[in-house]
């Protein structure tokens, strides 16, 4: 593409490094790392998962956004939705003069205010093919921060559409990443997709593949999760499996396995290759953070804190994973959820859509596990640990332990 499209940054990493450190560094997190991901603070022990917080793709997206502000100091900067699902990072960008375009999930982004003189940043999740084409038509400068792991899924889905396979995507049909991924089928005439949230949603589709049934009922159930004109009788004869990169890896693999078995029973094992394709497209960072939790839970802490945006898919799945192992788990957006004076915690219980406030939440716990989603900066992790220590009356001990 021409000089209005940038995907590799602007070579200004050294110039923005100081600002990034100021905005996101944590001495508490540094001390935990130096101590083997363990920190003693008086009677309290904090254990940090060995993989946590910002992943490479998020680092890169945030870097490019900061570089864009430095590169184009006199131009208006727009961001298509949130750069990542973390309210503090997005607030920092707003403070730098970046206008974040918000929209109703059921409607298109409004690009009417953008001119060819403006700079538009595309988020780590990517944008749909249609949104990309609309922006290119405006002629503005585009800074593409789409994560490489997401691009790998796009290539897989595009190949399914090219070869006549329907893309079955394990993901959240309303999520920005899944919308962008699903749109890749539009690169080929007749491209189709179906999005399933979990195994419960997959089961009626699997049953239909094997036994047929009420296609109209399925069409109504998946009205927002299928490509236009999706025909369950026609479009499930050949399927390829993909997934939103931040889903629970075990569930993605299980769904892929069940689709493979259903297709084999429907068409015969000897014909499976002609009807079914599957590739594990969970990103390595998501997998590493989930694996780190599993390692920690082999010797479980008394209480688990998961820090990150409530709308962050990978963070929600980390909380789900912790809770599924029977550990008392609190998913909080940031340290503001903990009120040491009142002794309360404001959190979103696993599986709930709303916050609750709970008192006496520590209840004698002394060993705290801590992790954070891939869009959570280190300073928010450190601030949370400080609030826990303050609540438990161990703040002086924590401050003495932090070098």
Short overview:
With 403 residues, the protein is of the alpha/beta class. It has helices at 13-24, 27-34, 56-71, 87-95, 129-138, 148-162, 176-182, 199-211, 215-221, 232-235, 249-267, 272-275, 284-297, 313-324, 378-391, 395-401; strands at 5-6, 38-41, 44-48, 77-80, 98-101, 119-122, 141-144, 166-170, 193-196, 239-243, 276-278, 303-307, 329-332, 338-339, 344-347, 356-359, 367-372. The strands form 4 sheets. It has a 5-stranded parallel beta sheet with strand order 1-7-6-4-5.
Describe this structure in words.
The chain has helices at residues 13-24, 27-34, 56-71, 87-95, 129-138, 148-162, 176-182, 199-211, 215-221, 232-235, 249-267, 272-275, 284-297, 313-324, 378-391, 395-401; strands spanning 5-6, 38-41, 44-48, 77-80, 98-101, 119-122, 141-144, 166-170, 193-196, 239-243, 276-278, 303-307, 329-332, 338-339, 344-347, 356-359, 367-372. It is α/β, with parallel strands linked by helices. It has three domains: 24-55 and 285-401, 3-Layer(aba) Sandwich (Cobalt-precorrin-4 Transmethylase, domain 1); 57-147, Rossmann fold (3-Layer(aba) Sandwich); 149-282, Cobalt-precorrin-4 Transmethylase, domain 1 (3-Layer(aba) Sandwich). The strands form four sheets. The chain has a five-stranded parallel β-sheet. A five-stranded mixed β-sheet has the order 2-3-17-12-13, sandwiched between helices. A four-stranded parallel β-sheet has the order 9-8-10-11. Strand 15 (344-347) and strand 16 form a beta hairpin. Helix 1 (13-24) packs across helix 3 (56-71). The protein is globular and about 65 Å long. The model has no long low-confidence stretch (mean pLDDT 95).
């Amino acid at each position: 593409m021409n000089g209005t499209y940038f995907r590799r940054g602007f070579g200004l990493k050294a110039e923005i490094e100081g600002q990034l450190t100021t905005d996101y560094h944590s001495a508490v997190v540094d001390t935990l790392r130096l101590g083997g991901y363990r920190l003693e603070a008086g009677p309290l022990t904090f254990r940090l998962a060995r993989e946590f917080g910002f992943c490479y793709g998020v680092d890169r997206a945030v870097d490019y956004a900061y570089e864009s502000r430095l590169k184009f100091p006199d131009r208006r900067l727009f961001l298509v939705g949130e750069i990542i699902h973390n309210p503090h990072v997005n607030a920092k960008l707003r403070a730098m003069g970046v206008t974040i375009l918000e929209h109703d999930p059921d409607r298109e982004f409004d690009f009417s205010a953008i001119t060819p003189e403006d700079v538009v940043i595309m988020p780590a999740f990517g944008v749909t093919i249609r949104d990309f084409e609309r922006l290119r038509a405006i002629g503005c400068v585009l800074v593409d921060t789409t994560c490489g792991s997401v691009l790998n899924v796009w290539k897989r889905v595009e190949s399914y559409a090219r070869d006549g396979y329907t893309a079955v995507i394990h993901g959240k049909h309303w999520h920005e990443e899944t919308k962008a991924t699903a749109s890749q089928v539009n690169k080929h005439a007749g491209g189709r997709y179906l999005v399933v949230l979990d195994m419960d949603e997959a089961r009626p589709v699997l049953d239909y593949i094997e036994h047929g049934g009420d296609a109209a009922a399925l069409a109504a159930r998946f009205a927002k999760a299928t490509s236009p004109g999706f025909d369950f009788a026609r479009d499930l004869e050949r399927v390829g499996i993909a997934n939103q990169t931040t889903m629970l890896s075990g569930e993605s693999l299980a769904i892929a396995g069940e689709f493979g078995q259903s297709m084999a029973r429907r068409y015969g094992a000897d014909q499976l290759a002609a009807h079914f394709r599957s590739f594990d497209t969970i990103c390595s960072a998501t997998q590493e953070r989930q694996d780190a939790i599993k390692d920690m839970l082999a010797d479980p802490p008394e209480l688990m804190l998961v820090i990150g945006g409530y709308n962050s898919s990978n963070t929600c799945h980390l909380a789900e994973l912790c809770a599924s192992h029977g550990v008392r788990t609190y998913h909080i957006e940031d340290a503001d959820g903990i009120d040491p004076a009142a002794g309360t915690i404001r959190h979103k219980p696993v599986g709930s859509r709303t916050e609750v406030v709970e008192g006496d939440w520590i209840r004698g716990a002394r060993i705290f596990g801590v992790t954070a989603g891939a869009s959570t900066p280190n300073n928010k992790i450190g601030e949370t640990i400080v609030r826990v220590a303050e609540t438990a009356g161990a703040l002086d001990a924590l401050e003495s332990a932090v070098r």
